[in-house]
């Protein structure tokens, strides 16, 4: 995972631009990307802060609140499809792709194994 640029560098880039230089020239002078300089100045203008935004995304998935419901539905109806589960979750207000449900169920210990006839059978 990458680290944010130091506050010192951020301050020097902002000061350089405030002295009348362009954001692109600031990027070249400090050997940072043009997008960093542009985004930094936008961030400073909007928030007044040089602090970087927090890194990382969700700490828990959006299916976490539906954990018990999903496992209960799979036990109640073992042949339920991922699309049906996605539809049921969407009715509760959370839009989710069937592949997300598949990964969720796989982490919960559910998987599909081929049976003797070459079809698929749910295994735990």
Layout of strands and helices, then pairs:
Layout: H1 7-18, H2 23-29, H3 34-47, H4 67-76, H5 82-91, H6 98-107, E1 111-114, E2 120-123
Antiparallel strand pairs: 1-2
Helix pairs in contact: 1-2, 1-3, 2-3, 5-6
Description:
Helix 1 crosses helix 3, helix 2 crosses helix 3 and helix 5 (82-91) packs across helix 6. 10% of the residues are buried. The protein has helices at 7-18, 23-29, 34-47, 67-76, 82-91, 98-107, and strands spanning 111-114, 120-123. The two termini are 34 Å apart. The model has no long low-confidence stretch (mean pLDDT 87). It has 124 residues and is mainly alpha-helical. The protein has a two-stranded antiparallel ribbon with strand order 1-2. Helix content is 51%, strand content 6%. The protein folds into 2 domains: 7-47; 64-123, Orthogonal Bundle (Arc Repressor Mutant, subunit A).
CATH superfamily placement of the largest domain = Winged helix-like DNA-binding domain superfamily/Winged helix DNA-binding domain
What is the helix fraction of residues, given as a range? 40-55%
List the helices and strands in order: HHHHHHEE
**Strand percentage:** 5-15%
CATH class of the largest domain: Mainly Alpha
Spatial ordering of strands, largest sheet: 1-2
Name the poorly predicted regions: none
Let me know the number of strands: 2
Main sheet makeup = 2 strands, antiparallel
How far the N terminus sits from the C terminus, by CA atoms, comes to: 34 Å
User: What CATH architecture of the largest domain would you give?
Assistant: Orthogonal Bundle
Number of domains: 2
Alpha-beta classification: mainly alpha
Q: What's the CATH topology label of the largest domain?
A: Arc Repressor Mutant, subunit A
Task: Return the average pLDDT rounded to an integer.
Answer: 87
Radius of gyration: 24 Å
Report the total helices.
6
Shape: elongated
